[in-house]
Amino acid sequence: MVSRPHGYKLVDRVIEDPKRRERILEEARELMRIELNEGLAADVVNIAHGVYSPLEGFLVQEDYIHVLYDMRLSNDIPWTIPIVLDVDPEEIAGVKEGDYVALSFRGRIIAIMRVEEIYGWDKKEYCEKVYKTCSIEHPGVFKTMRRKELLIGGPIDLLNDIPEPFEKYRLWPKETRVLFQAKGWRRIAGFQTRNVPHLGHEYVQKATLTFVDGLFINPLVGWKKPGDFKDEVIVKAYEVLIRNYYPRDSVVFSVLRMEMHYGGPREAVHHAIVRKNFGCTHFIVGRDHAGVGNFYGPYEAWELFKEFPDLEITPLFIREAFYCRKCGGMVNEKICPHDERYRYRISGTKLREMIRERRSIPEYIIRPEVAEVVFSFDNPFVE
Amino acid sequence: MIGYTSEETKVKRSRYTTVSIPITLYNRIKDMIKDTGFTSVSQFVTYVLREIIADMEREKLESETISEDEKKRILDRLRRLGYL
Predict the structure, then answer these.
(1) Residue A232 CB neighbour total at 10 angstroms
(2) What number is the ipTM of this complex?
């Protein structure tokens, strides 16, 4: 059976009825309008389609503070990354609590929001709590410190979805839940990624698939830091990998438009919650999940999961895989008795270096079909 | 209207409250959690209660409802996209 939604309610704040939608859109044109960037627009859509269940809108202050300090909403439901809408005071001049505002993206109204609360925030406090650092070297901190001065919280109602270049791979929780049931899957493992798959990822996914009914590969698309792989490279790489090396009936591939925060342990829990809403019963947590540089310990995320006995999605802690020349395949520390002389560890940095220098990549690191996709791009990396 | 600033909230909010448990139970838990990952009886009790309350809430809820029409629409889309 697919997992229950987080907080037991799959949120649906999409205005489907055409007449009602038209009427609200008409009214929304008269409202004060807040133009959103891509990340915030994606948050609005994710809230409406239940990806962030049980959130019905952007956090009000009480929830915000609880998430920051307790990693829980004010009703005690686990929640680790604040979903907040930042605005400049002049953007909302004249708006009072209780008013409605229109939210637009690229000039088009996508939702309305009832402003429940307008409040100030301390960005340094946010960074200390969420990222455990205020270093500007951290991409999450860098981004946060440039956000606007006020936060507004309140429920949203979606009128228009945002455009999705990978439309055929966009599935919402309601759809994946029906899909998993139709496939007869009872145990579904979610796999979060922002990378082109190498043999280490494949090993982790297939090791998991041995014990569950289905694998939900769900890469994030949207803003990423410079040096990360571009979305289209990730999608195309997975297309060829799945086509050539995965049993078709055991894998569902779908993209999720959601920005990376690089929040390490906290973000790992967030990623698990989101996949629980998609219906996953298990979630793969790898080495340095959602981490960046040396800001988090390699297995720090594993520790944090212990604080959430009520998460209701089972984290699968799978050790880093490496290639062992003596074993003749991908293994991990638990199953390989050989020493470092025989081991080749696939480092993301090293892999990117090889790609940048257009060097051929051994087949024990990356599948030839995946390498072909990567090299078909002049520059496969975010600039 | 601007709500409390973050600093004001820190002062105003209270994150814990007190509940009473029999002293005998308290002592029993205290002995039991020695050399475990739990650093206090409160931490243990919070952990256990969260586990139990999640179970109870889950049982209380009826199974998810999705109309047959909507399910059919979703299945059609999934077939069109090649997922089924």
Answers:
(1) 14
(2) 0.86
